Amino acid sequence: MNGTKTALVFVDLGTTTLCFSTSATNYANRSLFIGCLRTTTQGQGAGEFSNLVANDTDNGHIHIKGRPRNQTIRVRVLDGSLAPFTDTAAAELAPYVLGLRLERVGR
Question: How far apart are CA 75 and CA 15, in angstroms?
Fold first, then answer.
């Protein structure tokens, strides 16, 4: 895996997500972007492998307005140029687990 590539995670939860990105012309564009992943490498030699990970302190919180409206959550992991993230062999990501922690905030 290329440790210099940025892995950006975009998630469509089927609800209004209050995540904002900035631009030169509009300072509060809504976005499906929820955070970045970092590369970690474990093992040595033939047993070496890399993972993309993030923990509770790596990215800011997002807020959703209401709960998701369907059972389908669309997840896209893109690189810094917004193309699908690939490893150093240009292979797409293998199946992965995305863990989300949802907490109710106020009423």
Answer: 14
